[in-house]
Amino acid sequence: MEDSAAVPYRFKPIHLHWLSLDIVAGAVVSHLAASRLPDDQTPVNYLVIILLGLVVLGIYTLDHLLDNQRPSPPRTQRHSFIRLHQALIWRLTAGAIGLAALLVWFTPRELWFFGFGMLIFVAFYLWLVSRIPEKSNRQAVKEPITSLIYAGGVWGSTWFLGRDVSWESMVLGLVFFMLTFQSLLLFSHFEALRYREVFNLARWLKRPRTLQIIQAISLLTVVMCLAVCFYSEFRYAQRLSLILIAITAAHYWMMKNPEKGVLNERFRIAGELVFALPLLVL
Fold first, then answer.
1. Which top-rank group of organisms is this from (predicted)?
2. Which of 20, 31, 165, 166 could form a disulfide linkage to 38, CB 3.0–4.6 angstroms apart?
3. Where are the domains of the chain?
4. pTM of the predicted model, to two decimals?
């Protein structure tokens, strides 16, 4: 294998996507929006937001680095980039996780128990996926588990900050988990269309069932968010509900235009950045 340490690094904007920084941006914005529920008057702990960004960056880059430990050739452009510069990215990952470990001591104690539980769950997940053969239908477990980890860290963490949890936050938190799963399933679908050798959830489900699930999530999202709009007395919760409807509408449009998602990497970046749409209500 080529020594990645000897390869000079030259920055390109697409690297921000391959390093999952668009996912980090979406996570930070979504957490900030969730932490303000239900009335937009809830105090925000910005240290927790910084910690979240570092943890998301560390987990996603570590996951891709572990994927590249397999002897087979990289299966996507992102994996090729990470293998080429893995020495540098290992340092970035270690720095993000190390700084997060330092900052955790300054966060609310209520969050420690949640964070410790998430740490054990994420460690188990990374161990599990490292044991699954690359060409196995068991790769399908990655999308639902990753969705649970992402939604739990981004939205669920706001329930452990020592404040009362509103019913609006719980309902919209469930919606956020569904949208996270819908996004991962959608891009899993795009990868299955583009790369014949990829084994993921969409390939295991087959195309018809995959599209049915994506459509069902969109319908459930609209129904649950409209329920919040009608029954909540807080305008902020209503506005955030409409933003979540806009996110699933974007996913639905992407599902109807798969040729763009398969062939255009910039289109995929936009797909990741839809989770930054809650910025419009902040």
1. Bacteria
2. 166
3. 4-281
4. 0.88
